[in-house]
Design goal:
The structure is a homodimer of 228-residue chains. With 228 residues, chain A is an alpha/beta fold. The first copy, chain A, has ten helices and seven strands.
DNA sequence: TGTCTTACTAGCCGTTTGGATAGGTGTCAA
DNA sequence: TTGACACCTATCCAAACGGCTAGTAAGACA
């Protein structure tokens, strides 16, 4: 295993002072190198540290006090810890702005991330090289940055009186995970020490929240959103 | 929009002759830059073209005749076209080796890719920086490269007498997609102009192939595998 | 203190599903 | 021609699911 945090290896310094200092948190080397390369070559910024876990990201921000933290919410098993991290960074290091760089585009997650202090949300597959630097610069200056599609997505979500944008409770996510593993309500009930009726109830709520008609659709949406 | 194909912009040439020439096909700029950066800086290879679509990848291979094509199967809406592309490249340009660099790790897709001519299969989230260069070199020299986890995955799959490694038919995928949209068997039957019994039949087959107990699990596995 | 809201729990009843089995067609290659 | 394969249809019955209604516990707020 690589170590979780690695310090700046000093690739091509250009402007000596007042450079935007960035920490990148992503488990994927290729992405880290790509971001570093784009920001350092084209945008004249400095990637001062990289992290591949939530803890490491927190440590890195603590140690380097960067202007911007670029984070992929998908660092561990579930997205919830990434969201938690946004909260924590905002709380403990308010000077560091957070730019989420996500793999998936899910209304629910975008809204959660913004609610918990993220200053921007870009989708990896959609960003162009120059947009990354611009996005970092913009969040650094206090703007909120939403990538192509992200803005309209949440506008749409907020427009609809209710439904899709609501967050799932931990219990609901547990139930959905179990459903995705092919367990029956009875089995889920046993696993979670609740009655079968309760399992059904949770599923009904999630289908409303996710605007899904059946459990299979719930699982599909939750999987696509990276929740399970 | 960027153009689909862009020629080598000549970043840092080092060894003048006999360098491994690579074409990268991935819709994600960050990944492309990351791969280019890793291969050119650390492995002394040349990325001679980038592509962001299947057609462009084919064109680029035709035009540049690279030693290795690095491809993300997830270039378009579904993975099937990426698999088709492996077949086509192997067929028309046998001198170009194919290294699949995937987001997801699915037994079925790994096996399909190898069956259709891919020479290696690495998982983006698992590769370390040096492994990428080594992998490219290895496939170029005729080896088959399977990333961490990939090998054991398919070994496991081949070990089990039957089941998981079988490929889904187009009809089966259509049915699964519909299930993932929350349709009932009856609705699916109407949509596909077949009887409800047939829908159930297809689902029974897919659950055997995917080794899933219920439709929700089928959808989960198929979604996670990028099939729907 | 009373009222609201939210998460969680539960039972009832009709519909949908899954599993096992047993067939039918058309196509393609050995 | 004979398989092999994808695709289609059907029936039976137990099990699972979805929709509805309703109660409890905890926290927020006026």
């Amino acid at each position: 295993m690589d170590s979780d945090v690695r310090a700046d290896v000093g690739l091509g310094r250009r402007s000596p002072t007042a450079r935007t200092r960035v920490v990148v948190a992503d488990r994927n080397v290729i992405t880290r190198v790509g971001i570093r390369s784009i920001l350092e070559r084209n945008a004249g910024m400095a990637v001062v540290a990289e992290a591949t876990s939530y803890e490491a990201a927190l440590d890195a921000v603590d140690e380097h006090g960067p202007d911007v933290l670029i984070i992929d919410l998908d660092l561990g098993d579930d997205t919830t810890r990434g969201l938690k991290l946004c909260e924590e960074i905002t709380d403990r290091f308010p000077a560091t702005k957070i730019l989420v760089l996500a793999n998936t585009l899910s209304e629910m997650i975008v809204i959660e991330a913004l609610r918990r202090g993220a200053n921007g949300y870009l989708c990896k597959d959609d960003v162009k090289a120059d947009e990354l630097g611009k996005g970092v610069r913009a969040v650094q200056e206090g703007d909120t940055v939403l990538g192509r599609g992200v803005g309209s997505l949440i506008a749409h979500g907020l427009g609809s009186t209710r439904g899709s944008a609501e967050r799932l409770t931990t219990r609901e996510i547990e139930v959905i995970k179990a459903v995705g593993q092919g367990l029956s309500n009875k089995q889920i009930a046993q696993e979670l020490f609740i009655s079968e009726s309760t399992v059904k109830f949770h599923l009904q709520n999630t289908s409303k929240k996710l605007n899904a008609k059946r459990r299979a659709e719930i699982v599909h949406k939750a999987t696509a959103a990276g929740l399970i």
